[in-house]
TrEMBL record:
Family assignment from sequence similarity: Belongs to the FHIP family.
Organism encoding this protein: Phyllostomus discolor (pale spear-nosed bat)
UniProt-listed PANTHER family: FHF COMPLEX SUBUNIT HOOK-INTERACTING PROTEIN 2B, RAI16 PROTEIN-RELATED
Chain spans, region Disordered: 182-213
Biased composition (Basic and acidic residues): 199-210
The protein, known as: Family with sequence similarity 160 member B2
Span of domain FHF complex subunit HOOK-interacting protein C-terminal: 564-638
Segments crossing the lipid bilayer: none
Length: 689
């Protein structure tokens, strides 16, 4: 009752005295804070149990109220006092001393609220951005700090102010020197009234505050020597390192907010600040160093299937789904992939100068210094893990600058064919050799790497891997203007590459797949002939797809990991990916069965003919071939449980081969649809195109 009566009396007094001296109240609250340090002898009482938080709240409320009474753009006496007497500098020193315990949290909160709630531009002033820089150096360097929450709130306010006025970033990054330059040019660093106040010897409270025992100088002399800040030079700005440090927090919300703030910072940086980030700040080294540290924290060897299963991990979701089976290094792998995804996003959003520098740093420190030695290592397990990991990185890569660096790392900058076989230092040549490795696992992993690479939007990839070998059409026989008929060109015994010795008198070549090739007006093989040629490659006795519904190339992909037939499936997947490229040379070499090959040259179709010939001999030695083949197809589709059968690898290969031929026919049909209906043409086939 008494407290309510007191409140009413206060309101009445306020109504009669609207000209309450806000400056006097502001100074009294500040004196109350400084008196605590002079009079208190208890070093263990937490700051939140003293009157310091309340007095700081009153000072903040006075600043906000005063600003509402002032004309727009005009600073009031309390704000001038705050700036003139370096109150923020003193608070920063108190926060560094961490006395009383928890004072650093109070200082972070006060800075955040002043910058957020006072609308007058403050960060341009030396007596504001200098303590801001000092306060930044107090946080972000110790993971698990008790002030992480307050630190991230403080950096959030700073980044919000920088977003509103990107030129502020220059002040925060470059410090005192930049401000001095700005002062000499266009932007003021002191309020007009503040300058006048400094020169006015009769300004109220000025002498008492500076010379009395409660002044800022008297207060700082009471603190230990190591907590005092030197007068000269600000040193390197720590806004970037503070944010990077907070990004490493074990608290998910703190880390995510810090990452969002850093992303905002680089996305709004003007050219001058972008140049400073690259040339004079620890931005790129700090980001890449953390990436490399996360890589080193992973186990040396990881299962490629576990790496491939980490699809859902991103910088916003840097942890593996809880419903997935655990494996050693699961969390470390998720953290590494999440941070790489964040690096890619930074490069994607940043100013070009920053993006290029960060992309080069990632390429140099991660790709070249760490992954390349592992890819070229004699240890098969090292090669397998690094190849699968690089594939996962490519899958997450979106930024053009980092894609450029990745392509240069994998393929080099020379557009000519890959280095010769006797050049073991050429990474591209070595990776190509890995596609036909003694270890099926390494072959599969490398083929997946190239398949992922072929999906990236960079013309250098397909040109270096494929087109440079096809330009000039060296595979085409000269002097043959018209393609010959199928039966005239098919002679397996004369094929120099068909040397497995399996031909015997009992072998009969597959039935003629199509009549002599028809050509369009421009001399190209008609699409109907191409489609039917691929559809008829597999003999009827080796086909089973017509007996089951929902058959398609994609049906078998889900079981590919760890099964005997996965290498065949991966080879056909890469070839299908290549065949989809809309280039006439690729179409001719991979999809035209009637191309006239030069001596010693092979095409995809000629190789498939040889494979079918070998297949037809082998299936004759499999008892009950048709029944077993149908059973294997149902197993691969998941219709029945897996059961080990004789000749299972061969039977699985037959199923994959049939689907691959259907896939090629479908690709040809989609790339070059026939003009008008063709009753004899099979309907569009299932597939993953």
């Amino acid at each position: 009752m008494l407290s309510r009566l007191g409140a009413l009396l206060q309101e009445a007094v306020g109504a009669r005295e609207p000209t309450l001296d806000l400056l006097e109240a502001f100074v009294e609250h500040w004196k109350g804070i400084t008196h605590y340090y002079i009079e208190s002898t208890d070093e263990n009482t937490p700051a939140k149990k003293t009157d310091i938080p309340w007095r700081l709240k009153q000072m903040l409320d006075i600043l906000v109220y005063e600003e509402r009474q002032q004309a727009a753009g005009e600073a009031g006496p309390c704000l001038e006092y705050l700036l003139q007497h370096k109150i923020l500098e003193t608070l920063c020193t108190l926060g560094k001393a961490e006395y009383p315990p928890g004072m650093r949290q109070q200082v972070f909160q006060f800075f955040s609220k002043v910058l957020a709630q006072v609308q007058h531009p403050l960060l341009h002033y030396l007596n504001v951005h200098r303590p801001v820089q000092k306060l930044l150096r107090l946080g972000g360097t110790d993971p698990g700090s008790l002030t992480e929450k307050e630190e991230v709130q403080f950096t959030t306010v700073l980044c919000s102010k920088i977003q509103q006025d990107p030129a502020l970033l220059t002040y925060i990054l470059e410090g005192k020197k930049t401000v001095a330059k700005k002062k000499a040019s266009k932007e003021p660093t002191a309020l007009p009234r503040e300058t006048a106040s400094i020169e006015n010897k009769d300004h109220p409270h000025s002498e008492a505050s500076d010379r009395g025992p409660c002044g800022a100088w008297a207060l700082t002399t009471q603190l230990p020597i190591e907590t005092q800040e030197p007068d000269g030079g600000i040193g390197e700005s720590n806004l970037v390192t503070s944010l990077v440090g907070l990004c490493k927090s074990k608290k998910g919300r703190v880390a995510l907010k810090a990452q969002e703030n850093l992303l905002l910072l680089v996305s709004v940086a003007p050219p001058a600040a972008a140049a400073h980030l690259v040339q004079s700040s620890p931005f790129c080294p700090a980001i890449v160093e953390h990436l490399c540290q996360l890589h080193q924290s992973m186990p040396t060897f990881l299962d490629p299937a576990d790496i491939a299963a980490s699809e859902g991990i991103s910088w916003r979701v840097p942890s593996a789904p809880s419903d997935e089976a655990p494996f050693p290094g699961k969390e470390a792998l998720a953290a590494f992939l999440g941070w790489f995804d964040y690096c890619d996003r930074l490069i994607q959003e940043a100013h070009t100068v920053v993006a290029d520098a960060l992309a080069k740093a990632v390429a140099e420190k991660l790709f070249v210094d760490i992954l390349q030695p592992q890819l070229l290592h004699v240890s098969e397990q090292s090669v397998l893990t690094s190849t699968a990991l690089l594939t996962a990185l490519l899958r997450r890569l979106r930024s053009p600058a980092l894609l450029q660096e990745a392509v240069a790392f994998l393929l080099g900058t020379d557009l000519r064919p890959a280095a010769p076989e006797d050049s073991p230092c050429a990474l591209c040549a070595q990776l190509i050799r890995h596609c036909d490795h003694l270890s099926d696992e390494i072959s599969i992993a490398t083929l997946r790497l190239f398949e992922e690479l072929l999906q990236k939007p960079h013309e250098h990839i397909v040109r270096k891997l494929v087109l440079c070998h096809l330009e000039g059409r060296p595979y085409v026989a000269r002097g043959c203007p018209e393609p010959e008929s199928y039966e005239d060109t098919l002679d397996l015994e004369e094929d120099p590459y068909f040397t497995d010795g399996l031909l015997d008198a009992s072998f009969q070549p597959p039935a003629k797949p199509a009549p002599a090739p028809a050509t369009t007006l421009d001399g190209k093989t008609a699409v109907t002939e191409i489609v039917n040629s691929f559809l008829c490659l597999v003999p009827e006795e080796a086909k089973t797809s017509a007996f089951l519904e929902e058959t398609g190339y994609d049906t078998y992909v889900h079981d590919a990991y760890g099964l005997p037939y996965s290498l065949n499936l991966q080879v056909t997947s890469v070839l299908s990916r290549l065949a989809l490229f809309p280039h006439p040379l690729i179409h001719e070499y991979l999809l035209d069965p009637y191309v006239n090959l030069a001596p010693g040259c092979r095409s995809l179709f000629s190789v498939l003919v040889r494979v079918i010939g070998d297949l037809m001999q082998r299936i004759q030695r499999v008892p009950q071939f048709s029944g077993k083949l149908f059973l294997v197809r149902k197993q691969l589709m998941g219709h029945i449980p897996g059961e080990q059968l004789d000749h299972q690898t061969l039977l699985q290969g037959v199923v994959v081969l049939e689907e691959f031929c259907k896939e090629l026919a479908a690709i040809a049909f989609v790339k070059f649809p026939p003009q008008g209906p063709h009753p004899h043409l099979s309907p569009p086939l299932e597939g993953h195109i």
